[in-house]
Amino acid sequence: MPGERLKNMNPRPRVLVVGFAGHQGKEYLPIVRESADIVGGVDPAPAAPSLADQWGFPHYDILGEALEKVDFDAAVVTVPHSEHFPVCAKLLTHGRHVIKEKPFAVTEQEARQLIHLAQRADRSVFTLLQRNFDPVFRFAQENLARIGEPYWFSYDYHFNLAHQSTGWRASKEQAMGGVLLDMGYHLIDVLSGMFPEPEPPRVHSAFVHHYEEMRDRRLEDLVSLMCRYPSTGLVGSLRISRHNYEKTEHLCVLGTEGALNIVPGVAVLHSTGGLPLERRTWEGPKTDTVRSMIAHHLGHLDDRYYRQDHIQRQLTVVRTIDGIYQDRSRERNELADRCA
Ligand SMILES: NC(=O)c1ccc[n+]([C@@H]2O[C@H](COP(=O)([O-])OP(=O)(O)OC[C@H]3O[C@@H](n4cnc5c(N)ncnc54)[C@H](O)[C@@H]3O)[C@@H](O)[C@H]2O)c1
């Protein structure tokens, strides 16, 4: 097709940025522009038109208008969780690639629908998860086999926000989940990459609330999970929270022949007994990781193998998280029945 030939002659994809006036959207603008032509932006926020002016691309209030007026290859989507599915489904239905913020989807049903739409349109849906492009996490992944058979992990990820969540994160309808969905998505994805299994792990969870309002809205401020992977017997625990006394991230994996310990900027491979065998440090700015992540996805839009692997892993992540929320909701209903 002549259009196809023309597209292939231009190595810079044409990108629509959806949700570009928000926190994450703004952070991505300069980085996306390094590897793509931003040909338009959609965001209903009052500040969006002047921001689009500043960056020199046309602004649209709604996606439908952009789809009518501008031609593009891919969209970078950074919208509140409740908007992910309708926006991405529409983009795929119109035959556009999607590079999106996490979560890939909130429910297994929506994840499967997106996959169906992507496959029908022969388009990619890539989720932006920066740890997969972080040299320290890559070191851990590449050296995992050196610790023998992993039998235990412990993963902590905490923010130290002094105030209750605000904006869409404080609304059940828009956030569609608390810290498990918002922060925990990254961790479950890291674990799905390290310990790939066709079925999600079995999980026991405790949901905890710092603020009464968040309890009332059923948006957890803290979650503690105990996971068991049935096919290998691997067991592990995660704790994720927004209002800890310090901001921290720490993953430790114990294996039959050693251990891996990862904190931001440093991964260490240990022998059994704790002797450090090899260390990988990385002090580069976060922007470097984000740059390689976005360039990688933009460079693989038409790579069907990469696309398939990515989708399968994201489906497992979504099934794990959705399964935990479903279990909680079942337990709540059973309790309500017993009390009635
Ligand atoms: N990877 C990370 O570390 C990280 C960090 C922060 C946020 N995020 C993710 O980024 C996404 C956005 O979060 P945020 O903190 O930037 O939120 P935000 O509220 O700052 O920005 C969202 C933007 O989307 C716009 N928007 C809402 N509905 C829209 C629609 N239908 N079409 C177009 N624009 C729409 C809003 O006007 C707003 O400008 C979420 O999925 C969140 O989980 C990821």
Automatic annotation (TrEMBL):
It comes from the Bacteria. Residues 146-260 form the GFO/IDH/MocA-like oxidoreductase domain. SUPFAM superfamilies: Glyceraldehyde-3-phosphate dehydrogenase-like, C-terminal domain, NAD(P)-binding Rossmann-fold domains. Residues 14-126 form the Gfo/Idh/MocA-like oxidoreductase N-terminal domain. GO terms for molecular function: nucleotide binding. InterPro entries: Gfo/Idh/MocA-like_OxRdtase_N, Gfo/Idh/MocA_oxidoreduct, GFO_IDH_MocA-like_dom, NAD(P)-bd_dom_sf. PANTHER family: CONSERVED EXPRESSED OXIDOREDUCTASE (EUROFUNG), OXIDOREDUCTASE. This is Gfo/Idh/MocA family oxidoreductase. It comes from Streptomyces qinzhouensis. The lineage of its organism: Bacteria, Bacillati, Actinomycetota, Actinomycetes, Kitasatosporales.
